[in-house]
Amino acid sequence: IHAGVTMETGMMTVTATLTAISIMDPCHGTLYPKIMDIEEGGKILTTKLVIYDDATKGDNYAVLTNVDTSVEVDIGCIRLVFLNKFVGDILGFLNKFLDGMQEQLNKAKELAAEYSKDVAQKLQERAPRVSLNVKMKAPVIIVPQNSKSKNALVADFGSLSVQNSFSKAGESENKIPFVLDKMVVELTSLKMSRAVIGKKLAIENESLILEPVTITVSITRNLSAALFTEVPAIDITGVMKSVSAKLSQKDFSQIMTTLNENLTEGQVQIPHSTEVALGELTDKEVMESHVIPPPLSRQPSEELTCKLKFNFEIESLSATLYIGKEDLMAQRSDKAALGKVELQVIAVSGKQMSDESMEVKVILKDTVLDDSRQHKVNGINRMIQRSKSRLSEEGSSNMIDVSFKQDCSKDSNVDVRVNSLYICVCLDYLMSLGDFFTKGMPQTDRGEVVKQETKPSKTQKKVKEDLPPPPSNCMDIVVKIEKPEIILIEDQLNPNCNCLVLDMEVIFKMKIHPESQDMSANVRDLQIFSCVFSKRRSVQAQILNPCEISFYSKTPYGKGAHMDIATSDLILNISPATIKTMSGISAALAAKPGSEDETSKYTVPVDLWEVKKLHETDFWFLKTGEEVELEPEEILDELIEEETRAEQLIAKIPTMVIKIEGGVGKRTVPLLIVEASFSGEVKDWSSKLNVESTLKLEVAYYNEKLSVWEPLLEPVVEDGKMKRWELGLEVMMNDDLPPPPDEDGDSVDIVLPPPKMTVTVFSHEEIQLTMSKTCLEVLQNLGKSFGDAYMLVEPSEKAGEIISPFCVQNQTGLEIVMKLDNSFEMPQDADNFKVKMTPDRRLELWNKKKGLSRKASVIKAAQEGDEKKFIFQIEQFNATREVTVKRAEKRLYQINHKSYPGDIWSVIVNTETPIGHKILSIQSMVQIKNHFEIPVEVFYKDDVNVKSCGVVAPEANFGVPLQAVYTPGGEFLFKPVYENYQVSKETVSWRGAENLGTVQLACQGESGHSAFYISVRAEIEKVYFDVGDTMSAKSFIFHLSPTVILHNLLPYPISFQLEGTEEHTTLQKGKNTALLNACVGKSNVEIVIPIYEGKEWIGHRSITNDLPELSMLTFEAYEGAQQVTQNLGLHCKKNDGCMDISVYSPYWMVNKTGQDLYYKASDGEDFTTHCHDNLDIVMFSFKQKTLFSTKKKASLKIATSEWSDKFSLDTVGSSGDVQCKSTKKQTFSVSYFFYIPYVSECC
Predict the structure, then answer these.
(1) Residue 170: its pLDDT value, please?
(2) Beta-sheet pairing, 69-75 with 130-137
(3) Fewest CB atoms less than 10 Å from the CB: which of 103, 914, 1059, 1199?
(4) Which residues in the chain come in under a pLDDT of 50?
(5) Considering the entire predicted model, what is its pTM?
(6) 71 has which bridge partners?
């Protein structure tokens, strides 16, 4: 140390230089013997202090360049090594001297406080001026992993500079200037890194974690604050540019390992000599600890001024995470990036007034979290941000606004606003983030974990805990979260994936007063809906309907809390689509193959099952506990009952509706409804728990055929009124009582103590479940739909757009007018509630939206019926009719018109109720159903001509127009839409439909084409008249079907050709096709198996009405010049005018033996060869007489062996062994197994 003092006229100069300082660690084996050191060749401290005499006295005070003291400091770079072991040793040494120094330190504090008051009074008018010029190379702190590790964290605090200047803000009446001291503190090149430390604390390798940061703080002091109050006494402004951190998994692991090992190394328990036993506190000490100092208050005469003003701002704070364990390097690889989080514009501002009142504001402009993984670049990678579409109601553009206000009496208000929060939850990304932190945690050795047991001391007494003192001031806290958008996505790579959206608004209020603590929370418009992520603003499927949840709690001082939880009606819609979306979301939680950590595998000890001696083991359950002697007063203290604090929680849900929906795509409706209400009360949960609750339940299912709700869980009838079935629950915590004494000492019965808790579930009414066939069908369909959704099975049908609840179709062929009531949303072309419907128009109708009343019952409303009334008018005949739509039915309405030969025209209103959809079809009494796969055109015959009345689409219904029905003959003709066919010459008439049965119509083809045959079957359906419940009216349905359908049930493709047609048609295995040119009773068909065992097989059969249900079809082929045959089965079934013909093989043989096999039927000597290299199926059959009997047997032969004994082929599911003996006295054993469809596996 070099120091010097120079005395001159009017000034004194003091200089000091510190060239070297070091702290050594004498411990043996440490890699860091120097705890403190400086850079080589540098000076640690250079100071120059100049004190001027009378520089600011008198008129010189107005000269701002004059100062009382000038300080120049230049500090070099100090390198510090932080080892908690070394710090602990130093503190342990100094702790021995603290007890004697504590009293002296308290006295010094009192003297310093008195002296500071005197100095403050002297400096009210003229404050001394000190010029500062500080340049400092901030210290470099090295935190090793432990004292013997080269791995370390390096915190370089860069360079620090402090400079100040003085300025004039005004002057007093006495011409004394008001001086402001402006000080600028700048810290540059602050950084942090992970490094490997070499000799003499040199850094060998380094990887930056915190990139260089610059911090600028400007401090303005009002040196005349007592007289000049327009400027705050202290004004602090701080600015920090962007702060960027890059953290790899290895960096995080190194940080956690360093904290774990450095802070725990050499840790010893320091004895505290000042410890006081709990029982030694006097009542006076307890009372003094509860004394509350009175709040400071400002005198009314004092002028309110600003004492402190501050403003800090951070432009950007970001951190980028990288996966993998990279070596130390300066640059990070973008391919290893996991994510980036950024806080944009963090600002803190506030001021403190002279009466100790305070106001602070904190804002956060935006928070951004991005998924930076390379394989997710083209997907949804923005996880958190400020939503642009949902700004706050007050127009705030900040994500978070925090306001804190405190008045002069120390009462405070805290207001927190969270605005426009967007959170996209991707479980796969959350799992990756979790792996980053969990895998980066240091692995602890399980063997080093020692359980420390705390033993009670004999001298310690159990003292009843005193209540904490009540707060002396009031605090009001308000937290408001405005419309956050929380989204759970199914597939991050697909913007059009399904997702679940949670929407709500939360308001939380808390009031802390000396008398009580009040809390209230309100969740408004809580709803959950599913949608497509990219279209979430337009199409939404509701899961949880908007509802409200309120919470209120009041806790008087020293008493228990009284809480109340209430909700509005909760309506939950659960559909297979929702389950499928949730299954897709949760699929990301499934463990990935090979992701199991090797360290988590447990190795089974080799000697696990060997017998061990007990005295060689160290099991905890074999150890003897130490006895503890208790004093009598301690026993009495333990028997003191806990004070009951009268805690109470009341919860109530007035209506809870769970709708289990079914359907396909977006077309879903409730099929099962659970409607319930809940009320419960919980008391004294911290002492003696007591719970009482009641659940009222009602369950119903939807009968689609009748379009009504039917009860599954029957309601209870009481005093002639219906009410829900009730279920009660009671939970009671019992006293800890010892078991009753055994009066009979010789008794061998075990006396158990009373239970600690009693749970009672009860119901006073019997439960009645009604299971019908329809209910079982509904439950079965729901089970399959939800099972497929859970297993992520795609539905067989998907609906496009959302289907309206009502639809009206005009199939009369005339223009009608529909008159609607005001319960519908009016179509655009509606005029005075009337809509004109041209022929074939389809009108979609929607109900007006209305909310569920608070006490409304969905089941009761549905059972009463959602009845709708329509009025339709046929202005041409001046006919007006009213239709009531309630369930699926058909009703006939006559209109005011007659035609020859005296027919009164009528229309049928057909009401259909597919799931969630009511279709109202106004049509004639004649319908045509097309069962072809091609369209068919319909013609009718009037007095002179044949006219077309429409085309029936495949598998569709067609309502014949009224003018085509009411003709003299009522006759219809048909033809396929192909141009090379003519209209059928024969006709069918609805007037003679009752005696028609099934007829075959021929549509002649042009030259060179065979005729097209249509099978027409008439069906008479009974319907209601417009009034009444008797089905006395009639409706006519003509079914158009192919005459013959051919099914190929063989394991090989076939081709067929009808007699008179030009070419063969191929039919693949398992497929079917209609024989459009087949005339039953006249046509012959040729069936060919093109390739089977290297030959072409041909069979013929005539198509006649008397074909038996089961018959034999013989196929012929040529092997050289020799003809061979193959018998197969032919199945014929007549279905409502259509004949289904199926070609099949009775037995399919599969050879898995690896040997050549030969099969022989018991009814002949011919055999079938099955080579070992033939992996195809071999078809096997019997002769016709044996095939359709119940005694079918076969024999088996392997290669050159003899034929086996006959074994049965009758029982499906049977199995066994067949023995084949060879001429070389060898026996071959072949296992066989039969299962549907009669496949024999030979193994």
Answers:
(1) 79
(2) parallel
(3) 103
(4) 270-298, 300-301, 392-393, 446-463, 593-600, 664-666, 795-801, 851-855, 1238-1243
(5) 0.66
(6) 49, 132
Residue 772: both structure tokens together: 């019908």
- What is the Cα–Cα distance from 198 to 151, expressed in whole angstroms? 10
Indicate the SS3 state at residue 947.
Answer: strand
How far apart CA 191 and CA 203 sit, in angstroms, is 14
State whether residue 621 is helix, strand or coil.
Answer: helix
At residue 1177, the pLDDT reads: 87
Exposed/middle/buried for residue 313 (C-beta within 10 Å: 0-12, 13-18, 19+): middle
Per-residue pLDDT, 1037: 94
Tokens standing for 272? Answer: 């505290």
- What amino acid is encoded at 724 in this protein? R
**Residue pLDDT, tens place only, 257-292:** 988 888 888 765 544 444 444 344 444 444 444 444
Structure token digits, residue 149? 């590790």
In DSSP terms, which residues pair with 678 in a beta bridge?
Answer: 653, 695
Cα 682 to Cα 734, 1203, 1212, distances in angstroms: 15, 83, 62
Residue 251 · residue 207 · CB < 8 Å = yes
Tokens read off for 997: 């049965």
Q: State the Cα–Cα distance between residues 488 and 541, nearest whole angstrom.
A: 15
288: enclosing H helix or E strand: helix 283-289
For residue 348 the two structure tokens come to 């803190």
Of 439, 492, 425, 427, the closest CA to residue 248 belongs to 439
Identify the bridge partners of residue 478 per DSSP, sorted by sequence position: 415, 509
Q: CA 174, 177, 179 angle in degrees (round to 5)?
A: 150
Of the candidates 782, 803, 787, which has an alpha carbon nearest to the alpha carbon of residue 673? 782
The phi-psi region of residue 324 (left if phi > 0; otherwise alpha if psi is between -120 and 50; otherwise beta) is: left
Q: What is the CA radius of gyration of the chain?
A: 47
Calculate what percentage of the chain has a pLDDT beyond 90. Answer: 28
- Say how far apart CA 1137 and CA 592 lie, in whole Å: 57
Residues 851, 863: Cα–Cα separation, whole Å = 18
* Secondary-structure percent of the chain, ordered helix, strand, coil, rounded to 5: 15, 45, 40
Give 936's contacts (C-beta < 8 A, 6+ positions apart).
930, 951, 952, 974, 975, 976, 977, 1014, 1040
Q: Where are the alpha helices (DSSP H) in 869-983?
A: 962-965
Query: Within 13 A of 75's CA, how many CA atoms are on the CB side?
Result: 19
